[in-house]
Specification:
The complex is a heterotrimer. Chain B is α/β, with parallel strands linked by helices. Chain B contains five helices and twelve strands. Chain B has two domains: about 90 residues, Translation factors (Elongation Factor Tu (Ef-tu), domain 3, Beta Barrel); about 130 residues, Nucleotide-binding domain of ferredoxin-NADP reductase (FNR) module (Rossmann fold), CATH 3.40.50.80. Helices cover about 20% and strands about 30% of the residues of chain B. In chain B, helix 5 links the parallel strand 11 and strand 12. Classes of the chains: A mainly beta, B alpha/beta, C mainly beta. At the A-B interface, strand 1 and helix 1 of A face strand 6 and strand 12 of B.
Amino acid sequence: MDALDGNAIAGELFEVFGEEMTTAIGACAHCGATGMIAEQRVYLRAPGTVARCPRCSGVTMVLVSIRGGARIDLAGFKLAPPHDHGAPVDQQPAS
Amino acid sequence: MARAALPRRLNWQQARVVELVEETAQTTSIVLEPADWPGHDAGQHVDVRLTAEDGYQAQRSYSIASGPEDEHLVLTVERLDDGEVSPYLVGELRPGDELELRGPIGGYFVWNQSITGPLLLIAGGSGIVPFRSMLRHRSATASNVAVRLLYSARALDDVIYRDELAEFAAAGDGVDVSFTLTREWPEDWTGHRGRIDGKLLDEVSWPAADMPLTYICGPSGFVESASGTLVGGGHDPRRIRTERFGPTGT
Amino acid sequence: MSPVSRGFLGRRRPVADPSRIPPGQYLTTDFPVLSAGPTPHTPLDEWSFTIHGEVEEPVSWPWEEFLDLRSETVTVDIHCVTKWSKLDTAWTGVSVDTLLENVETSAGYLTAWSDGGYTTNLALEDVTDGKAWVAYEYGGEPLEAEHGGPARLLVPHLYFWKSAKWVRGLTLTADDEPGFWENYGYHNHGDPWLEQRYQGD
C-alpha cells in the first residue's frame, strides 16, 4: 500500500495541536533530515497512523485514537521551536 | 468571497447538498451549502464523515474543487467501485441530503494570487481537483501569474473539467494546458501519450532556470515519479509541493 | 453521535452466523491491506527465521530449509482491531510448535520481530499447542508481499496486529515486553472475544 503524506492527517493534527501543522518544520530523529510535516510519508489504516521520514523511513510520528481520544507521539520528529512553519511559498528559503 | 484565514477551530458541520453534477462516468461534483463556512484557500481540502444508523462511521478527505470566490462549496469525487465512501457520494447522495464535513484544512498545498510564479501544476487523475480551485481563484482575481498545467489521465473520457480547462487556456492570459493520456487515446489525438517522463516534462514545463513553483497532485506513485523526474532534471525540490491521494486513475 | 447519513451502510456484509463475529467487529469479504510502513522486499536467499533470546541455543533456518519443515494448512477466522473480521481464511505454514520442538527455554514470553522494524509481544502459551504458525501461503498461493510475504506470523485467536507481517524471528523473553503497537496503548494480550483492544480493557 503506497504511503500518503502529511496532508492526509492535517485534520487530525489540527485537532491535537489546535493549529495548522502541515507546514511545521522538524528534523527526523533517526537521520536528521529536515522537512515539513506535509512531506512525511503517512501510513493510514493500521491500528494507528504512522508517519515516516521520506529519506530514511524511520518512524517520525505515531497517532492513535484510543477510546475516542487522539494521542500523538512525536518522539521521532524534533519540531523546530516554537513550531517553526515553512515559509509561505513566495519566500525563497535561505540557502 | 474574500480569502479566508485558516480557521481557529476545526468543527464538524452539516452541509446541504444543493446539486450533483456528473463530470465523467466515474466522477461527480457535489455542490454544497455548509451551515457555517468560513471560506477557504485554493488547494485546501475537507474531511467528510459518514455515519450509518448503527453508529458505524467512515471518513475520507476530498480536495475542494470550488474557488475561494465561488458561491458554493464544491467537492469533485471519483467513484472507486470497491470503495466504501465514494460509491455513497457518487451514487446514493441526493440533493437535500446533509453531508457532515469539517474544513477547510491544509496550509501546505495552497496557492493564492499573491504568491509569485511561474506555476507548474502536474495532475494525475483526480489530482486535478485542487488545481481547478487554484485556476478559478486566479481568474476571479484577474491574476496574470503564468501557469503551465500538465494533466495525466487514462483516457479522454476520464478527463475532468475538460471544457473549463479549455476555456482557461483559450483566455490568452497566461494559462497553458497540456494533456497526456496513458491507456487509450482517440485516433486523431494531438496531445501527448503515455506516462509522464523526463522528455515530456522538458517539453511542457518551465525550465528549471525559471524557478517555477511546482505543485504535484495525484496517487502516490505518480507524485513520486513526477517529483523525482523534475528534481533529476535540475528543479529545486524546495520549490516543489506535493499532495498524494489514494487510488485514482492516472 | 453524528447525525445519520441517509442511506449509508458502509462496506459491511450481513452476518449469517453472529457467533463467529467477536463483539464490536464487522464482517468483510475483502482483505484490506493495513501497514505501518513500506513493504520490505527481502530476497529469499537473504531470508532466515531465527529463534533466540532466553534459549539454551538459538536456532535459525534459511528459506529452503524452512520450506522443508513439516507444514500444515489451516482455515481460520481473523479479526483486526480496526473492526474487520474475515472468516474462513486458508493458510499454509509451519506450526510454531514445530519451530520450538528442539528449543530449550524457561521463557514465558516472546517478541516477534519483522523486516522493517515491527515488533509485537506474545505469551508463549499463546503460540503453542496448535495456536500459531509462520505462514508462507495464503489461499493456496505464495503469500504476497503486501500481505506479509514471504512469511508472516499467524495467531488467529488474537487480534491480527499480533500476526506480524514479514516476520523474521522470535526473541524469547522472561518478561512481557510491549511491542510496537502495545507501546502506543494497544493491549498486551489482545483477545478479540474479550475486546482487549487497548491497555486497560
